[in-house]
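Note to self: keep these together.
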Amino acid sequence: MTKHDAASAGCDLCRIELEHVGVTAGADTLLSDISFHIHCGQLTALVGPNGAGKTTLIQAILGQRPHTGKIRHVDADGHNFPAPRIGYVPQQLPFDREMPLTVCDLMAAALCRRPVWTGVGKAMRRDVHKALEETQAASLIDRRLGALSGGELQRVLLAMALTPMPDLLVLDEPVSGVDQNGLSLFLQTVSSLRSTHHMAILMVSHDWDLVRKYADVVVLVQQSVLRVGTPQDVFSSPEFDRVFPGVASRGWEKDASAGVQFMPQ
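Structure:
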C-alpha cells in the first residue's frame, strides 16, 4: 500500500516495529528481546499464559514503562511517524455503579476534560452521539452507566478510545465476562473499524476461538516472543503446545486435505 492509499483509508501510519524490546524491574527481567511488527489494517492478537508479560508489553507500547530496544512508528515510506494516536480499551472500568452518571456525562467529560456537573451543551451532545454511532451504541447515550451490561459498557469504552480516531487501537482482554450477544456485536464493530479506517489493532485475549476468527496475526509470548504467525500456524505449533499443554489437541485436528483446522468444542 502506498502512502497515498494509506492516507485515503484513514491512517498515515503503516506499522509499529518492536525491535529487541526488553523490560526489567530491579533485578527481574520481565521481557527480553521482543521483536515483531503490528501492521495497519490488521488485528494482531497477543497471547500467552498469566505472568507472560502481556500487560507489561502493552504498557511499554503505550509509553507507560521504560524499556530497552526500540518501538518505532513507521509510515509507508519507512520514515518515523511522529506522535501516533493510540486508543486503549481496558478489560474493565472500575467505578461506583450507583453513581447517577450517564453515558453522555462520561463521554462529554472525556472529550472536553470538564467536570460533568457543568452540564452538556447541544454541540457536545452531538459530538458524543456521533462517537457512539461508530460502535453502534448511540441508543445508550442517556443510559445510566451502572445500568449497562458488560457488552454495552465495552462498546462505550471503545467509542471513547476511538475519539479522536487512533492510529493504533489496543484492546486488553476487552470482552472478558461479556455475554455472547455483546461479544459478537463488539467484535463485529472492531472488525468493521479495522477495514473502514485501516487502523492497527493489538488485542490481548485468552479466547482461542475469538483469536482464530478475528486475528490476522498471532504473537505468542512468554517473557520473549516464542512464535509469530497466522492463528493456524501458532495454535498448531510445538511452542503453543509447550506453553498450553493439551489445548491444541483438544481444539484442533489434522485434516490431510485442509491442513490444520479449528474444531469447536
